[in-house]
Amino acid sequence: MTDEARHEPGSDPLWSESYYLDFVDPKLEVAGYVRLGLCAGLGRAWYWACLVGPDRQLVTVIDHDIALPTPPSTEIRGEGLWADYIVETPLDHVTVGVEAFAVGVDDPAEVYGELRGDRVPFGMDLEWETDGGVYPYPGVTRYEVPCRVHGEVLVGQEVLAIDGWGQRDHSWGARDWWSMAWSWTAGRLDDGTRFHGTSVDIDGAAVYGTGYVQPPSGAMAGTDQVARSQTLGLEGLPSEGRWQIGELDLRVEPVAFAPVLLTAADGRVSRFPRAWTRFVASDGRIGHGWTEWNQPQG
C-alpha cells in the first residue's frame, strides 16, 4: 500500500510527513514513544524518542536539526543518534531501531529550558504489529493503527524486554504547531477494547474531532462525537482530563510526561506535553495509553 511509504512534499513551508509510534508495558511500569518528522519545507528532519516510568528519570532524545533522508529511506543520522523505521508488511508490521545518547532529567518540565541533564546511552529494537483494524481520518491524510508491541529497550546498563500495547500513526500535509491547539489520545482497556480520539481547537473553539472505538471482538467503529477537557498543573502539564469518544467516557490520569518544546523560525513557541496515561472508563474498566496536548504559547 503506497500510504505506508513516503509522499511527495507539498509547497507549504510547514508541510511535513510524520510517523508516530508509542508503547506501554504496565507490568514493567515503563512506556515510551518515537516520532520521525520529515519537515520538507524546513529542509530538516525532527526526531524524538523517550522512555518514562512513575519512578524513573525521563530519558529523552529531541533533535530538530537532522539531514532529511534520501527517499524512499526513513533512516536518519545525527550527532549521537541513529534511527530507522521499516515497514516489514504494510499495515501489519513495522520495526524501529534507535541507537542514541539521550538526556536524563528528574523533572520533565526541564525540557522547556535548555535540556541539560545526565548523558544516558539509549536504544530501541521494537516491533509494532497491528491489533485489529486501521482507522483513516475523515477529510485528512492520516491513519491510526492499534498495535501489539514487543522487543527490547536499552537505557544505561538496563535491558528491558517489552511486551505490551501501543499505537502508531502516519500523516502528511501542512502542520502548524503554533496557531492551533489540539489533543490526541489512544489506548487499550483491560478487556481488550481499543480507542482513539483527536480534538483540534482554533481560538478556543473546537473545529475538528474524530476517533474510533474497537471492541475486543467486532469491527472498529469511527465517530465524530468526540469531546475532551483537561485541568492544567505546574508548567501547563495536565494533571487530569476527560475524553468522550462516542459512548466511551474516560477519565485521563497522567502517569509520566515526555514533553517537547517547539520553536518556530519566527520565534513563536508551542509546548507539547505528551504523557503515558492511565484511563478509567465510567463503567470501571481500566486501561493505559498515551495522550498529547499541543499548547501554543501566547
Mean of residue pLDDT values: 96
Q: Tell me roughly what share of residues is in helical segments.
A: under 10%
* Secondary-structure class: mainly beta
Q: Nearest-angstrom radius of gyration?
A: 18 Å
Tertiary shape: globular
Biggest sheet features:
11 strands, antiparallel
Distance between the termini: 41 Å
The helix tally amounts to 0
In total, the number of strands is 22
Give the amount of beta strand, in percent: over 45%
Compose a concise summary of this entry.
The protein is mostly beta strands.
What are the defining features of this structure?
about 300 residues, mainly beta, 11-stranded antiparallel sheet, 8-stranded antiparallel beta barrel, globular
Describe this structure in words.
- This protein has 298 residues and is mainly β.
- 0% of the residues lie in helices and 65% in strands.
- The chain has strands spanning 15-25, 30-39, 44-52, 58-66, 76-78, 81-89, 93-105, 118-130, 135-136, 142-155, 158-174, 181-189, 194-202, 205-214, 221-223, 226-232, 238-245, 248-257, 260-263, 269-272, 274-281, 286-296.
- β13 (194-202) and β14 form a beta hairpin.
Task: Show the helix and strand layout.
Layout: E1 15-25, E2 30-39, E3 44-52, E4 58-66, E5 76-78, E6 81-89, E7 93-105, E8 118-130, E9 135-136, E10 142-155, E11 158-174, E12 181-189, E13 194-202, E14 205-214, E15 221-223, E16 226-232, E17 238-245, E18 248-257, E19 260-263, E20 269-272, E21 274-281, E22 286-296
